Amino acid sequence: DINRQLNLATTEQSVSTLTREICELYKNELQDNRKTLVNPSLKRVIEYIDQNYMNRLTLENVAKHVFLNKTYISQMFMKHLGISFVSYLESVRIYKAQEMLHKILLF
Fold first, then answer.
1. 68 near 39, Cβ under 8 Å?
2. In angstroms, rounded to a whole number, what is the distance separating the alpha carbons of residues 107 and 104?
3. Residue 55, exposed/middle/buried by CB under 10 A (0-12, 13-18, 19+)?
4. Is the separation of the CB atoms in 63 and 69 below 8 Å?
């Protein structure tokens, strides 16, 4: 369990190792989801999220940027990825934050 391991991590090295493992888990999960994509519209949405995750993104403004209906985008996420738009966006942000934290801990 990651929460238990994080609570037991007492040294900088153990925290760094655990952070690296968490980053790898998120990275692998995101990559697995992307590999199975066959819907070009969903690919376009995901590319936009990946390039703009650090900005204020809503389903509405992403839909405007990729010229798709927000309901359609929401349905595509559930159908093809099994998660909501918001859950995907949060996963990307968590992964990117963990990557940054890992880089900081290495220096």
1. no
2. 5
3. exposed
4. yes
Return all residues near 99 (Cβ < 8 A) that are at least 6 apart: 23
103, two tokens: 């880089």
- Tell me which DSSP letter residue 54 carries: T
C-alpha span between 83 and 66 (Å, rounded): 19
Contact criterion met (CB below 8 Å) for 99 and 50: no
CA distance 32 to 106: 26
Position of tokens 């403004």? 61
Phi, psi of 53 (to 5 degrees): -55, -25
**Tens-of-pLDDT digits for all 107 residues of the chain?**
555 655 565 665 566 666 666 666 666 666 666 555 668 899 899 999 999 999 999 999 999 999 999 999 999 999 888 889 998 998 889 888 888 887 777 66
